[in-house]
Design goal:
single chain; alpha+beta; 59% helix; 22% strand
């Protein structure tokens, strides 16, 4: 007899319950513990995925709220622009350019020569804005010209410089400045 056979025969009463206990533990692990562990790990993965989805949804909600706030702020600013910055009508637009331009010119040591107005028809019939084009001529030296442009662009009046042309026929004479300007004004409900 070999040593293992002898041990198995003599200690059978001890080895059989031990072997049954090991087999029972393996069966319990395979049938109960492992499936519960897999189920728990799946639940933890689902919980982590749900937490990430919640964070993404909260970010989306915050972005949507910011969009709504930004849109309402833009509407307020646009309303302020239409109501407070733009001239109310064509005559207000003419008064704005008629008074503002010579005042800025005097401030900058620029001599006013000539001005022509042209009301441009907007091709969009549903537009709420009209366009007033102004062609002006001025005499000045170059530094005064720069100061005048700076003052005009810094002024609160809504006047756009469309085109500039400087010329000088004789170096001993001042520069001739021709400016094409435009401003917009609100149209009435009938387009006038």
């Amino acid at each position: 007899m070999t040593l293992w056979k002898r041990i198995l025969t003599e200690k059978r009463a001890l080895i059989i319950p031990l072997a049954l206990g090991v087999i029972g533990n393996i069966a319990a692990y395979a049938l109960v513990v492992y499936p519960l562990g897999v189920k728990t790990a799946g639940a933890a993965d689902r919980a982590a995925a749900a937490a990430q989805a919640l964070k993404a949804a909260e970010r989306d909600q915050a972005a949507a709220r910011a969009l709504v706030v930004g849109k309402s702020r833009a509407e307020e600013e646009l309303s302020t622009f239409y109501d407070k910055v733009l001239p109310a009508d064509l005559s207000s637009a003419r008064r704005l350019t008629y008074a503002t331009l010579p005042s800025l010119a005097r401030k900058s040591n620029v001599k006013f020569l000539d001005r022509h107005y042209d009301v441009e028809r907007n091709p969009n019939k549903s537009s709420r804005l009209g366009i007033l084009k102004v062609r002006t001529q001025w005499q000045c030296d170059y530094e005064s010209f720069r100061q005048f442009i700076y003052e005009l662009e810094s002024a609160p009046a809504f006047v756009i410089i469309d085109d500039l042309m400087l010329s000088q026929s004789d170096p001993s004479k001042p520069l001739l400045l021709i400016m094409q300007l435009s401003t917009y004004y609100r149209l009435g409900t009938n387009g006038n």
